[in-house]
């Protein structure tokens, strides 16, 4: 744990170094750790790793000269429930006082580097103000997502009314701690046609499932297969920062997978799942038997079905290659984005400085209308218009016209013709579950895989997680929902792994998501589908607001811009099981000129 009093404890493996914190507005683009992925081709015999290579490990027993100790404050300087960043010379530490006890932890969220002192302290954990990850203040362990790593926990002692913190210099500089994991000791790893755990899909759900198994001491064979050419990467960043290179997006370096014996098959497409014989068949004919299976195939982007849909330079964004190609072709040219949801609007925002013109085509009358409502949608639309984005609303594409095979014009149903050299299509996605149709694994009418709270499908030993599932949302009366978001995929991957190990875990995470446009971030928590009213506090025109989405007399979701940490605060209240009533919010808006949010953390509702 990086401490140096009494008996030294082993320092846990630390993998990535966080880059210097980017300026506040650029939080969404800051790196979450660089790796150097190489594609591991899925071609029969080459499907294995050489496990001799090991990650460099820090020395397990830091010597006194590797440690730094300092008095950081007087015991009375902090009230219960307060947090403070303190300086130890080699780096900062987050000091927390809770129930009369002091705790010292890493001060930055390992996900994107957010200052945790600006987060929310509640129920023995601190929640990140940017994206909602939660860390246990007693251990530093990651308890809710996004992100993969935990915080270092430092030693605290109190002498003569002064609070002293002692930490290893290395831990202070690394700012993240990868939990101790088992290694694979299976003699057949990498060679035989059978595996203990097979994970189909290497997004957040698949990766977190594999890591959780190893963290829980599982040492048998794990195979993770993906259609992608790359090792697992940070997909939400694709549409927010289109020219980021694949190696900058990697969630873990390739040495990590080798060290822990997580075998990754890239460009490996599963075509059939035989649940009776517990076997999958890949497109190239390779067969693999499994004992436990996680299905996390994600979704496939919808494409246009209009006349001319086959012309060149029309893209959906699914891979780093797609994103990079769009940026390259868009420079100084005319871009049309079809769809004003999260992906379309993020792409439009990113391309405004690079393209000659950016136009957005959308069926609804305002962007994000179903998700954020009319008023918030209109305020965001204005921000885009101020950045030279042109909107064509309440219409759709009827034809794509080409010149010498390449896109030249987009014709709308309103008969308007828009000049276009590049078209990006962001009109939603469908679950990538076609390969399961004859498998006996249940799919609903839309192609989603229904699971229970333990992420189990209708077939014993087969679990599913991520964008392709519907699951019971605990705090909305177990309503079956599909929530295709990054944080939720992490949480579901963890629950699936725990239940593969018979731990009887249930999914209880409160959804949390974010988007970034023009250096501004919008945060959102809850599940707002079918809201019937929106209560807004703050100034929509200034884009400094919080919007409460209600249904009946209950708050079911909250969105904010420049109003931190209210979304994390609401997420904590909902996670604690307390309902927030519409009346409370109306009183808050009526009386709050200061933005005081103490009412939210009150006990009764």
Automatic annotation (TrEMBL):
GO cellular component, one term: endoplasmic reticulum
InterPro entries found in the cross-reference section: FAD-oxidoreductase/Apoptosis (IPR050446), FAD/NAD-bd_sf (IPR036188), FAD/NAD-binding_dom (IPR023753), FAD/NAD-linked_Rdtase_dimer_sf (IPR016156), Reductase_C (IPR028202), Rieske_2Fe-2S (IPR017941), Rieske_2Fe-2S_sf (IPR036922)
GO molecular function (one): metal ion binding
Keyword annotations from UniProtKB, A to Z: 2Fe-2S, Apoptosis, Electron transport, FAD, Flavoprotein, Iron, Iron-sulfur, Metal-binding, Mitochondrion, Oxidoreductase, Transport
The UniProt record lists the keyword Flavoprotein: yes
Protein name: Apoptosis-inducing factor 3
Source species: Callithrix jacchus (White-tufted-ear marmoset)
Entry function: Induces apoptosis through a caspase dependent pathway. Reduces mitochondrial membrane potential.
Ranges where the Rieske domain occurs: 70-165
Region Disordered, residue ranges: 22-45
Subcellular locations according to the entry: Mitochondrion
One Gene Ontology biological process: execution phase of apoptosis
Family label: Belongs to the FAD-dependent oxidoreductase family.
């Amino acid at each position: 744990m990086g401490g140096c009093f009494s008996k030294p404890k082993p320092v846990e493996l630390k993998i990535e170094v966080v880059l210097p914190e980017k300026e506040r507005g650029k939080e969404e683009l800051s790196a979450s750790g660089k790796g150097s992925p190489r594609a591991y081709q899925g071609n029969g015999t080459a499907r294995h790793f050489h496990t001799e290579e090991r990650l460099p490990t820090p020395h397990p027993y830091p010597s006194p000269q590797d440690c730094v100790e300092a008095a950081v404050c007087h015991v009375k300087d902090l009230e219960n429930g307060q947090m403070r960043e303190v300086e130890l010379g080699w780096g900062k530490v987050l000091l927390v006082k809770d129930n009369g006890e002091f705790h010292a932890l890493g001060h930055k969220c390992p996900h994107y580097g957010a200052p945790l002192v600006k987060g929310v302290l509640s129920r023995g954990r601190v929640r990140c103000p940017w994206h909602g990850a939660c860390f246990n203040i007693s251990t530093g362990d990651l308890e809710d997502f996004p992100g993969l790593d935990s915080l270092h926990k430092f030693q605290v002692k109190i002498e003569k009314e002064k609070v002293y913190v002692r930490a290893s210099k290395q831990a202070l500089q690394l700012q993240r701690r990868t939990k101790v994991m088992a290694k694979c000791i299976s003699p057949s790893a990498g060679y035989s046609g059978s595996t203990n755990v097979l994970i189909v899909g290497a997004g957040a759900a698949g990766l977190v499932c594999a890591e959780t198994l190893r963290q829980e001491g599982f040492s048998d064979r794990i195979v993770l297969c993906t259609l992608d050419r790359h090792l697992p990467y940070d997909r939400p960043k694709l549409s927010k920062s289109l020219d980021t290179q694949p190696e900058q997006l990697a969630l873990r370096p390739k040495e990590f997978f080798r060290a822990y014996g997580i075998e990754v098959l890239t460009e490996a497409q599963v075509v059939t799942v035989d649940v009776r014989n517990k076997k999958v068949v890949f497109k190239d004919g390779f067969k693999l038997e499994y004992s436990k299976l996680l299905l996390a195939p994600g979704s496939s982007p919808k494409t246009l079905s209009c006349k001319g849909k086959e012309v060149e330079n029309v893209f959906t964004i699914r891979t780093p290659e797609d994103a990079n190609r769009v940026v390259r072709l868009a420079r100084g040219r005319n871009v049309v984005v079809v769809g004003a949801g999260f992906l379309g609007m993020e792409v439009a925002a990113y391309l405004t400085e690079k393209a000659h013109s950016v136009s957005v085509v959308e069926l609804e009358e305002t962007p994000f209308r179903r998700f954020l409502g009319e008023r918030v949608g209109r305020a965001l639309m204005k921000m885009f218009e101020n950045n030279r984005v042109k909107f064509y609303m309440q219409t759709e594409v009827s034809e794509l016209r080409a010149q010498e095979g390449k896109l030249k014009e987009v014709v709308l149903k309103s008969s308007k013709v828009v000049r276009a050299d590049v078209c990006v299509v962001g009109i939603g996605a469908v679950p990538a579950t076609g390969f399961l149709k004859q498998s006996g694994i249940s799919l609903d009418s839309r192609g989603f895989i229904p699971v229970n709270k333990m992420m189990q499908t209708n077939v014993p030993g087969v679990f599913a997680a991520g964008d392709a599932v519907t699951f019971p949302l605990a705090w909305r009366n177990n309503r079956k929902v599909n929530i295709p978001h990054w944080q939720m995929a992490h949480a579901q991957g963890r629950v699936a792994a725990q239940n593969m190990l018979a731990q009887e875990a249930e999914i209880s995470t409160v959804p949390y998501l974010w988007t970034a446009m023009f250096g501004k971030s919008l945060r959102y928590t809850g599940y707002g589908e079918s809201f019937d009213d929106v209560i807004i506090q703050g100034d929509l025109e200034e884009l400094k607001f919080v919007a409460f989405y209600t249904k009946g007399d209950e708050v079911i979701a909250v969105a904010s811009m420049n109003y931190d940490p209210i979304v994390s605060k609401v997420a904590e209240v909902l996670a604690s099981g307390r309902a927030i009533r519409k009346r409370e919010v109306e009183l808050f808006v009526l009386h709050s000129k200061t933005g005081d949010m103490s009412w939210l953390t009150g006990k009764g509702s």
